[in-house]
Design brief:
Blueprint lengths: L2 E6 L5 H6 L7 E7 L3 H11 L3 E3 L2 H8 L3 E4 L6 H10 L4 E4 L7 H13 L3 E4 L7 H11 L6 E8 L3 H15 L5 E9 L2 E3 L3 E3 L2 E8 L4 E7 L16 E6 L2 E6 L2 E5 L5 E5 L2 H21 L9 H20 L3 E2 L8 H10 L1
Parallel strand pairs: 1-2, 1-4, 2-3, 4-5, 5-6, 7-12
Antiparallel strand pairs: 7-13, 8-11, 8-17, 9-10, 11-12, 13-14, 14-15, 15-16
């Protein structure tokens, strides 16, 4: 089957979504949409996209896309996702972070429960070739029983921390989270539409006993001094018989005979592969209900609840049992707390 695909929002990360189509065989970009016509025209020219619109609903009605790439700020995504659902769009890939605070989290939980549209959050790292290999190793028991996961990003939680949190869930086998004990400080609003703590740490206990440490923002490990701020995402998984360690520029793993194996990564090259992998996972899910994308909306909302638990844990200085019902104004409470 060949899928008709369209992009909503032609700035920022949209290029990463579109670049992947040179590796994709089952889908084609047929249209794009942005309120800024000049930006939309430039994007359409660059990627040779025929359909050009400044109104999303007009585009959906005329083009009937199978998949929407919603590449807009998180502050406006809930409304766009609701409109896509109401219009009967079969699938949508939504940029991260999926939420801002407690109110939109609860709105999306309600949307996910009733939606026939299959929503996937754009955590493309989950489809990095080396990550896929390491996940297979863990599933096959090559490092024994997973005991501890350590992940970090130098950009704040809403910027990049959500990416490595998604990887932590994957390496923990998507087990439910039992408790979160967090400490966050400072407040920032990246680009004016990504509200977040400047730095955050969370100790996470999964229901199966796996422990995890998540750090995002100032003070997180710098894995490559030459890399830009966003270039310091990393995750390490420790088991009873070995480990697997991935960072954006390389990897390391324990060898069966003892010692370690190590290699380098061309991140730009494999990121295009990862984005194609995520898009193909969306196609797989559309073709077969049993092939649920690993970065589906429900799972991503479970991850966002961990971030909200970190805020609450900071405010009340206590571990938070999961799941919990966050206040609509939890982010505002956190901001007031860190500024007091």
């Amino acid at each position: 089957m060949s899928f008709k695909c369209a992009v909503v929002g032609c700035g920022g990360r949209s290029g990463g979504h579109a670049d992947a189509y040179r590796l994709i065989k089952r889908g084609k970009l047929v249209a794009c949409c942005d309120l800024n016509k000049k930006l939309m025209d430039q994007f359409a020219e660059r990627y040779q996209i025929p359909g050009r619109y400044t109104d999303m609903m007009e585009m959906i009605q005329k083009e009937r896309p199978d998949v929407l790439h919603i590449v807009t700020p998180p502050t406006v995504r809930v409304g766009l996702m609701r409109r896509a659902m109401d219009a009967g769009v079969p699938g949508a890939i939504v940029e991260k972070p999926i939420c801002v605070g407690g109110k939109d989290y609860k709105e999306l939980v309600a949307l996910e429960k009733k939606s026939k549209t299959k929503f996937v959050v754009n955590h493309q790292l989950r489809h990095q070739p080396r990550i896929v290999e390491f996940l297979d190793d863990v599933a096959q028991g090559k490092i024994g029983q997973v005991r501890f996961i350590d992940a970090s990003a130098v950009f704040p939680m809403a910027g990049q921390g959500v990416h490595v949190l998604d990887l932590m869930f994957a390496f923990a086998g998507y087990n439910p989270v039992a408790t979160v004990f967090g400490a966050s400080s400072g407040y920032d609003d990246i680009d004016g539409h990504h509200p977040t703590s400047k730095t955050a740490e969370c100790l996470i206990t999964f229901a199966n006993g796996i422990r995890a440490a998540l750090q995002a923002g100032k003070g997180a490990p710098m894995v490559d001094p030459s890399a830009p701020g966003w270039g310091h995402k990393r995750v390490a998984v420790y088991g009873t018989n070995g480990f697997r360690y991935w960072w954006m520029q390389g990897w390391e793993k324990s060898a069966p005979s003892g010692g370690t194996e190590r290699g380098v990564t061309d991140y730009a090259a494999v990121d295009v592969q990862a984005q194609a992998g995520l898009t193909n996972a969306m196609f797989d899910w559309l073709e077969d209900d049993k092939k649920v994308s690993p970065t589906n909306l429900k799972t991503s909302l479970d991850q966002w609840l961990v971030i909200l638990a970190g805020y609450l844990s900071t405010i009340e200085s206590r571990p938070v049992d999961m799941p919990f019902d966050p206040a609509d104004d939890l982010l505002d409470q956190f901001v007031k707390h860190v500024r007091s």
